[in-house]
Task: structure prediction
Amino acid sequence: MVIGVRKAVRALGGEGMKVLKGIKLGIRLPLMLVAISVVALAIMGVSSYGVARKILTSEGTDRLQQSLDTRVGTLGAWAAGLTSDLHATASNAGTVRALREFSAAWDRLGETPQDDLRKAFIEANPNPPAERYKLDYPGEVNDYTILHRRYHPGFVALAEQKHLVDIYLVSVTGSVIYSLNKQDDFATNLREGAAQDSPLAQVVAAAQAATGEAPVVSDFIRDPGAPGAPEVVFLARPLRSTEGLLLGVLVFKASAAPLSAIMADPRALGQTGQGYVVGADMMLQSTLRSAPAKGAPDVQTPAVERALAGQSGHVVEAGINGAEVMAVFAPFTLFGRTYAAVVEQSTRELFEPARALARQLTLNGTMLLVLLGGLSAWMARSVSKPLGRLTGTIGTISEGVYDAGVRDGERGDEIGDIARA
Result:
């Protein structure tokens, strides 16, 4: 079979040479020069494109990796800041004193403290629901309202300074004896009715059972009191007396908006880049910079799965929006839970400079081929035309006209040699 292929190649080569021999030099020479130029330009173009693509891959991977590291570091600092603020507030003697005094005032309100407080701070509150925190004194004089007027401005200032959604003080019996925003969970018992299944009740119960100083943190959840708002996270820590007796629980309710803001930051991501966080339950935890045009984003990508498995790296894959992307991924820990962090960018955008280079090389090559074609045609004509004259002269001599004039004898090349001969 190999012998047969070789014979076929030789046969084709022989036929090709016959065809070339049948073409006049005025055409053959330009064709040969242009063909050689095309091969050379093609090799140079493919090589240049390959080198450019490798450079862009390396540069893009490094840039995305640096962007991912920066975002993960910023998220860690945000979480550490919340944890530190909770620790500082829980360790403050004023916080413990406020819990003791609110608890005592709650007990002195009589048999229905929940109803009395909800009426004073929720039902009779002149402010809209989102601004109920503005009421520090409802006008009714009792121990609780006096304490509220004393402590509430300080908690408001703390929430504004630390960007908290709400602050809770929960008694040892599970009653929410103080809430900054006075929403539906204020003045309820977290061990009764529907409230006992709420995220707030769960984090309070876990904090009451905790023995160390580490905060208890909930998952990122949708705030039922604020539909459409960013997710929130609860951070709780038990408050104890100097003797170690459990007095109650301090709870911070923080917005997860910084999580989305950090990951969706467009810097260093071009026009198509995205950063996002996925939990161990394969749920998207951050808001996308650019959501899919149709349907929900598909987070079950190789990058996410490998990150949740504890791996770091980069991969070319179908991204969260379905388009081919370069994705850089890594696992990270936030509030004691493991998440997958991914930063990706469309390969179409990433490799656009290489395609632009290829287009420019094609344009330049085409112009060069045109120039070479014209130059080679002129050069071929400088050879074929004198040869044509010599052919005519030789034909005249062969007819017996020996005194026929022979031109081009003054040339110093082979054509001149033939003419002189």
The radius of gyration is 41 Å. Residues 146 and 394 are 128 Å apart (CA to CA). The longest helix spans residues 25-91. The chain has a mean pLDDT of 83.
